[in-house]
Specification:
Helix content is 47%, strand content 5%. It is mainly alpha-helical. The chain has 3 domains: 113 residues, Rossmann fold; 189 residues, Alpha Horseshoe (Serine Threonine Protein Phosphatase 5, Tetratricopeptide repeat), CATH 1.25.40; 180 residues, DNA Cyclobutane Dipyrimidine Photolyase, subunit A, domain 3. It is globular. The mean pLDDT is 96.
């Protein structure tokens, strides 16, 4: 007897979501496809590839335990997997939940798969479009803070009866900007899962593909039980101290108090609602300060959902925006080549080993260097999409093009997020042992970030000097007596970045 087939994609691994929630397991077949052509299409990071495939494999076993018939396929392509499934199972219909990215959406439409609305986010893309139409400012821009407050109110999160924010302020970010503690700090250790037979199976599958990064190290859970264990760990061990040092970076501990939950939110092992509820429950029970709680809530219902909404609201060609006309490819130093830049060396190693680093290394080391040096935004999108374990097109396009590199010319951010060595010295402990001097703009030992920062502002006066938020910066630039030497040093730095000799 033919049954319906629900095609579950690799980032929809939750039977509580719309594609499976109301399905009778005895009358439903679930299709999961690992596509060889997709694995061959890019140089994926090993952590990312292993995480998604192992999570899919374990989810297939979970669905079988719930009574679903599961067709687990490793096929030449997604289309081939579907066609082989139809030939073997003869389903009455194939349905799927809306994919989170445009390529997946267009593919399933072309294949004639019936799509049902996604409930994987707290704000559906159509709801976001409606909000955006009502909240565009006179210049056509949108503000995340407006969206965040709207989300807080409509979801009734940290809201008083009169509609005001708990604690009297919407945003407690000013309390969450402490530099690293003088003694380096004490930070909780992240849970680890030892590899098992399924991990061995995935390693064997991936052996034939050209992947980047180190071997699978068990940092990431690949089933719901492990994801829930990490949620509990975060709430109990890291959440109380999360807020104050949210923007700090230390060389001896790559995770600090960060949740490291984004991969599970992105592939379905956790739902944003349950993370929010766990954080709020910890606050109600006492012991977790409001600034830590509000910081996490803003990341989940504010920034994460805002990014997802922008991805679908922006035009499809937004991914190729290149406001500064950058032409450099991703430099070898970010890809793991040896470098004397202490901050870049550490962050590149973390990305290679874990496929992850928290938001400040992403923004103020990786994206900052790329913007200052003149890396093509699309190249950065592709590399971060391929490498990061929480990478996805919907994540990386707005974050890199809009926020990280100002490649959209200010449609998303009011000014570029660029900085010289002084910022890195304040918020990290990288600068002390570095062979470069963050205070110097010129000379062999000048910090590349400092040199490139002033050169970037100088090279792009025509695009940036009129920005009122940069008025003080340009006033300082105009007082520099060594700008010619800075320009010369910047040419050298960019050349050595390309050559991998910096």
């Amino acid at each position: 007897m033919a049954t319906d087939t629900v095609w579950v994609l690799g980032d929809q691994l939750d039977e509580r979501l719309a594609h499976l929630a109301d399905r009778d397991p005895s009358a439903t077949t679930v299709l999961l496809v690992v596509s060889r052509s997709k694995l061959e299409s890019r140089r994926w990071g090993r952590q990312r590839a292993h995480f998604y495939i192992a999570s899919m494999r374990r989810f297939a076993e979970r669905l079988r335990s719930l009574g679903f018939t599961v067709d687990w396929r490793i096929a030449d392509s997604m289309r081939a997997g579907m066609e082989d499934h139809i030939a073997e199972y003869g389903p009455r219909a194939i349905v799927a939940m809306e994919p989170a990215n445009r390529a997946g959406f267009h593919l399933l439409e072309r294949l004639g798969v019936r799509l049902i609305p996604s409930d994987q986010f707290l704000c559906h893309r159509d709801e976001f479009r409606g909000w955006a139409e009502e909240h565009r400012r006179r210049d056509g821009s949108l503000l995340m803070e407006d969206f965040y407050r709207w989300q807080r109110r409509r979801l009734d999160i940290l809201i008083e009866e009169d509609g005001s924010p708990v604690g009297g302020r919407w945003n407690l970010d000013e309390e969450n900007r402490l530099p690293p503690p003088a003694d380096g700090g004490q930070w909780p250790e992240a849970p680890i899962d030892l590899p098992d037979d399924i991990d061995d199976e995935v390693n064997e599958l991936l052996a034939g593909f050209d992947l980047t990064g180190g071997p699978w190290n068990g940092t990431w859970a690949t089933d719901r039980k492990g994801a829930l264990r990490r949620l509990t760990h975060f709430v109990e061990e890291a959440l109380p101290g999360f807020g104050p040092y949210e923007d700090a970076v230390v060389s001896h501990h790559r995770y600090l108090n960060h949740s490291m939950l984004s991969p599970y939110l992105n592939n379905g092992l956790l739902h944003p609602r349950e993370v929010v509820e766990a954080v709020l429950a910890a606050h109600r029970d006492g012991g977790v300060p409001l600034n830590s709680v509000e910081g996490v809530i803003r990341q989940i219902i504010g920034w994460r959902e805002y990014i997802a909404g922008l991805y679908w609201t922006n035009d499809e060609d937004y991914i190729d925006a290149n406001h500064f006309g950058n032409t450099m490819e991703v430099p070898p130093a970010l890809l793991g080549a040896a470098t004397n830049m202490n901050c870049v060396s550490h962050v590149a190693r973390w990305v290679a080993e874990d496929g992850w680093t928290h938001h400040i290394p992403r923004l103020m080391v990786i994206a900052n260097l790329a913007t200052l040096a003149g890396v093509r935004p699309r190249a950065m999108v592709d590399w971060m999409w391929e490498t990061f374990v929480d990478g996805a097109e919907w994540v990386m396009v707005p974050n890199v093009v809009g926020m990280g590199m100002y490649a959209d010319g200010g449609a998303m951010s009011t000014k570029p997020y660029v900085a010289g060595g002084n910022y890195l010295s304040k918020m990290t402990d990288f600068c002390g042992p570095c062979s470069f001097d963050r205070r110097r703009r010129t000379g062999e030992d000048a910090c590349p970030f400092t040199t490139l920062y002033w050169d970037f502002l100088d090279r792009h006066r025509d695009l940036l000097a009129g920005n009122h938020r940069l008025a003080r910066v340009y006033a300082n630039l105009n007082r520099l007596s060594d700008i010619d030497e800075v320009r010369e040093r910047a040419v050298e730095v960019r050349g050595r970045l390309v050559a991998g000799t910096l």
